[in-house]
Design goal:
The protein has helices at 2-11, 16-21, 24-35, 56-61, 67-77, 84-89, 109-115, 117-130, 138-143, 152-169, 171-174, 181-199, 203-214. By secondary structure, the chain is mostly helical. This is Putative tick transposon.
Length: 219
Amino acid sequence: KEVADTLDFLRARFDLNFLTSCSKRSLVRKLLLSLFPDPVFRLYPYDPPQNCRTGVLKRVMKMQIPPKCKTFFYRFHSRTIPVKEWLDSRGIGVYGTTNCRLCQTTETFTHAFILCVDAVFFWDVFKRTLKKDFEVVETNFRYLHFEGKLDTIQDVLVVLGLYSLWKTRKVDTEAGAAKPSWVNFKHIAIQVGHSILACQENDEWKEIVKNLSQSPDII
């Protein structure tokens, strides 16, 4: 009976010609794609850019950063960050209005991390202070995919930058101490830099910690 059920299961999903000619490995691969398709947040228009390096969540998991930053990025990657527009679309009450407190436009996922004046200012200072050059685009951030060679340090800094932007924005709902995004970023990036330098010598991290320590607290 189990064999008969298995054959019925396969016939319902694949052509008989394919079943008689495919290898075991090929069949397993097709079954996985059929039973576990790509999640919605990786489909168009949120699909990864061309030639994107896969395994972004595994790369973040191996980063020497606080667990709260990793948890944040998993939600950022799946576009489940509770911005006001996301909460309102699911019937969750939003205090006051769904507009961004700075721009007076709807606080969407893209607006919070890219289009808001706070985000635009933050990424400009980020790139000039740390001497990094990349395009500020949602897909680049969600997949940590930037032009050129793989830059692990840049990936770490970008994750910390995104977390800092969200930490500043959460002050409205969590009644925390209000601090600029850049101050939050400096604090956590210097902390991460010191912890990495305590384990290994790294000239680039030394330069980053030095530049961040000397940069002013931008209000």
